[in-house]
Specification:
Layout (H helix, E strand, L loop, with lengths): L8 H31 L4 H29 L2 H25 L6 H31 L4 H29 L2 H8 L3 H9 L7
Helix pairs in contact: 1-2, 1-4, 1-5, 1-6, 1-7, 2-4, 3-4, 3-6, 3-7
Length: about 200
């Protein structure tokens, strides 16, 4: 009889981290959109399209090599490296939104940071997926994947109204800075993982 994935400590940690990432990513992306619309109202459609294109192209490009990273390197280290990089890039985005140091050129910097952050997530996701069978075993893999899908489907609709509410009462830069507090959860959860998988 297949063992429940919930019986595996590392699966619970991985799932909690994945749910947190799934919750915060749409909040950050939509906050970027609100900021662009607020700061560049005369070109908001163009710039929003460019932000989306920057994110999508990075996911596509780095998605092609993300699986190779997950197969070649120890997956816990890949996850930790990706999330540390994501936090650093996110801090750069928050600083850009709040300080706005370069005037009209800020949108170009935002596009570069968006591309970089999406690239880290495109490497992170295959590593998470590859870590799952290493933790729960093949006999519990289908159940574990189901729970991961449920976590994504639940967190996404919760994040959307929350990010809309937050952006309606405070500046987008402040909201984006607030989202970085999620890494107070994400990084310790990865650090507590014990499994070894290459």
């Amino acid at each position: 009889m297949a063992r429940s994935p919930w019986a595996h400590r590392d699966f619970r940690l991985l799932l909690a981290g994945s749910a947190t990432v799934s919750f915060v990513m749409p909040m950050q992306f939509l906050t970027q959109i609100f900021w662009v619309q607020d700061r560049f109202p005369e070109r908001d459609v163009l710039y929003v399209g460019l932000v989306a294109a920057s994110r999508g192209s990075a996911m596509l490009l780095f998605g092609l090599v993300g699986g190779a990273f997950a197969d070649r390197f120890e997956r816990r280290r890949v996850l930790l490296g990706c999330q540390v990089a994501s936090l650093a890039i996110g801090a750069g985005v928050a600083a850009l939104m709040i300080a706005e140091p370069l005037g009209g050129a800020n949108i170009g910097i935002l596009l570069l940071l968006t591309f970089a952050q999406a690239g880290t997530m495109a490497v992170d996701q295959p590593a998470r997926t590859a870590a799952t069978p290493a933790i729960v075993g093949m006999e519990s893999l289908s159940s574990a994947i189901t729970w991961q899908m449920v976590a994504q489907q639940v967190t996404f609709p919760i994040a959307l109204p929350l990010v809309g509410f937050l952006n309606s009462i405070v500046e987008p830069g402040t909201v984006y800075l607030f989202t970085l507090s999620a890494w107070l959860v994400i990084l310790p959860l990865i650090a507590m993982l014990r499994f070894r998988s290459v």
